[in-house]
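As the next step, I needed to go through one protein, both as residues and as discrete backbone shape codes, included below for the reader:
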Amino acid sequence: MFWTLKEWFWLERFWLPPTIKWSDLEDHDGLVFVKPSHLYMTIPYAFLLLIIRRVFEKFVASPLAKSFGIKETVRKVTPNTVLENFFKHSTRQPLQTDIYGLAKKCNLTERQVERWFRSRRNQERPSRLKKFQEACWRFAFYLMITVAGIAFLYDKPWLYDLWEVWNGYPKQPLLPSQYWYYILEMSFYWSLLFRLGFDVKRKDFLAHIIHHLAAISLMSFSWCANYIRSGTLVMIVHDVADVWLESAKMFSYAGWTQTCNTLFFIFSTIFFISRLIVFPFWILYCTLILPMYYLEPFFSYIFLNLQLMILQVLHLYWGYYILKMLNRCIFMKSIQDVRSDDEDYEEEEEEEEATKGKEMDCLKNGLGAERHLIPNGQHGY
């Protein structure tokens, strides 16, 4: 049964143009062609990248974060067995009736119970240091892979002449630069997928899963069907913008607002040019229209373009979020990641309440907000 399914899966009519056989893509005369077995190496390389990431975050990202003044924050919460049990076994977001009952049971005010739950939720949220480490690692990889991609492609004729993408297809030999470009890129996306459950979760968590799976599926399929030349163009178009986004995140977590805003504007410009102009009108034109001058439509041609169109839908989805962030930046003078689950707002609200609490204590003791004595009959402002 397994071998029958395997033979059916690798039928030439699913992967190759008519009249082309797998035997036509066997190595000969010193020429090497793609093989599906090459992709097995992406899994061990993904785990190797996870190890490298761990070392990078500890010995590079953490010291860099400290130099920016970002420290590991320890959020302390007053121990309360009743509230802790409710938090773990019932819900992290209690209703008003629940708060009323818990306040009675613990002999606390409703406001104190609300504050406890807010502090407890913040305690489980990722710290600013963790966010910085993740952004720093992605920045380092995207910078490396972008430079490598430019180095691999700058002298290739299909970068400047899209007709060369299909010249001789599918009997196009595999170059060492193409091999490593693909293997590294796929290994990186596998490593991101393996870490999704541990990395910072945002509102577009599901979109990230779809994106990573689509990217891996697209690269795997393009590799097996020998769409290597168009595949390298797709990768460089994506990588060139991501490095600016991760650098903007790093400076955002460091509190360098002006630098973050500038980098985000650069990212937005490159994103809209590369993914909403170059990708649909250059890459999709190359994969959808130009092959018809060389070949008749066949299954892998249709499947390839279907995946690229799904990718373009994701571009529009993220473009919507980017526009929202640009709107905040222009009209509110600050950039906040709209994908975040309001944790920054809750943390700020908690800090404000703590500050107000201290001020109230000071006022009760006859001190101003700055802990100066207030003469009788005067206010602290």
The longest helix spans residues 299-332. Residues 126-330 form one domain. DSSP finds 14 helices and no strands in the chain.
